[in-house]
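Course exercise 7: structure representation. Students receive a sequence record and must write out the corresponding structure in token form. The form below is the worked example handed out in class, using DUF459 domain-containing protein (399 residues). Read each field label carefully; the graders check that inputs and outputs are placed in the correct fields and that the protein name is recorded exactly as given.

STUDENT ID: A-19
EXERCISE PROTEIN: DUF459 domain-containing protein
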Amino acid sequence: MKSLRGKPARLLCFGLALMLAATAFVGSTAQAQQPERRRNLLELLFGQRQPAYVPPQNVQRPREGKVRKKSSGSVTTIKTRAPTTRAAAAPPPPPKLDTAKKVLVVGDFVASSLGDGLKTAFEGSPGVVVENRANGSSGLVRDDFYDWPGALPAIVAEVNPSVLVIQVGANDRQQLVTPDGRLDFRTDPWFSAYGERVTRLATIAAETRVPVIWVGLPAFRPQNMTADALRLNAIYRSSIEKLNGEFVDVWEGFVDQEGRFIVTGSDINGQPVRLRGNDGIGFTSPGKRKLAFYVEKSVRRYLGDMTSPDLIRLDATNLPALVSLPPSENKSIITTPPIDLFDPQLDGADELLGGTLPPSSTFPTPRDQLVQNGSLPDPPVGRVDYVKRAPPAPETATP
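STUDENT ANSWER:
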């Protein structure tokens, strides 16, 4: 009897435990789907409470970047994404004209950077084309590698430039071989022989009958290289100026106020940018543009109006037509044809200084009418200062 009484009790307890486990599982599942308040024991035994609706929350998207997370001594890099915004594409440059003038740039790797900067400077000028024929490893010492005096006439004949730009010498700080022997760098015989080679190249460039611009070397990070560039620039300047050529000095653009080399400096707009590469010798894109900034002014002077894309020369064929004004109610206005600024009659022609010129009009001006009559002429009808009342309409007689 005792065993029968204990068996239903155990079954009842087992059933309650199953109900509690099932209710807890359902409650945990619902809680995982959406948040709900904690239920009491009566709600667990006799029914479930309907979950309240919770609107979804706005989730902010992470910014783009890299988050470094430390876990158990190791570093994990997690990349996050962010919505990308497309910048407005710049309009393409205008096409070059068939009659565009050409600027030829020759020299070493510094001249190559100069040519890239000039291409950017004249990108919006349809009448100018920059031909960059620089050889990065060339110079005037190793003529066995590349002979600029021998190759320049053929290049000029092929390109047919309007301006010739030369910048060379950054690779020439080495031993020079002559028929008399080898000359060590930084010796007086070396500078004498090197000056003769510079004069020879400048003479060949002047014989092409093309305006020649010789650009000096900039400063470099190695101090001995900067000191050598100063000495070489003096040779370039004296050689080209003897042949009536132009020397452009770019030294001030790549040093500070004390004359020391700088990696970061102001660009052509005055903003601080990186001008030189990590080696202190090459140029960045802003550095190339600044290098060309010093040469751009001289090139524009030689090329003239072709460098201005928006310049239109007015002549008799493209002058706008004169539009006739509507007739005015003020009869005192007298129209006269336009006068040319270069008309000989404009300054009095044959009339001497102090002579009396004939009046341009015989009709009295408003000032003359005020002086003579004591009143100004009536303003035109409809203007704000016209205050006269309209005359009353005549009365019609009734029969």
